[in-house]
Specification:
This protein is α+β, with helices and mostly antiparallel strands. Helices cover 50% and strands 14% of the residues. It has a two-stranded antiparallel ribbon.
């Protein structure tokens, strides 16, 4: 394993190095202290720009992109198609193995941590896209606030 100069790593992978420094409590060391906090602010600005762009995107290739599952169903119903419904169904088939239905437990109980031991409530977000060659796509991701 070869050692790399810190300045080369900082130049090539600034965000990854910043996250490493914060995770390992070395962000306040002199080699990191003078630039880590600026890089964290820059990362936050980048994330906020991406988020705002995501929420502003309403159409792609001339087709309306839904923001929520309810909106996807409404678009399908209005257009008389089932493109988004099929995309949601396909994604659910792909990720269903990761979920287990817990009977007699409300959402409030899950959020409060009153579930089976070893289980944790995780909020999910489904995002939609149109892929040029593959058609309509729906994908699950963990909501950022719960991580």
């Amino acid at each position: 394993m070869d050692w790399l100069c810190l300045s080369e790593v900082k130049e090539a992978y600034p965000l990854q190095l910043t996250e490493y420094a914060v995770a390992n409590d070395i962000a306040y060391e002199p080699a990191f202290n003078w630039w880590v906090h600026d890089m964290l602010r820059k990362r936050k600005r980048i994330i906020n720009k991406v988020k705002s762009r995501y929420w502003r995107t309403t159409h792609k290739f001339g087709i309306q992109i839904p923001i929520s599952v309810q909106e996807a169903y409404e678009i399908d119903w209005t257009a008389g198609t089932s493109h988004w419904t099929r995309a949601i169904y396909k994604e659910m088939q792909n990720v269903r193995i990761a979920f287990e239905r817990l009977e007699n437990i409300t959402e409030d109980q899950m959020r409060g941590g009153k579930t089976k031991s070893g289980y944790t409530y995780i909020a999910l977000h489904i995002w939609f896209s149109i892929l040029r060659w593959m058609g309509f796509s729906a994908s699950y991701s963990v909501a950022r606030k719960t991580v």
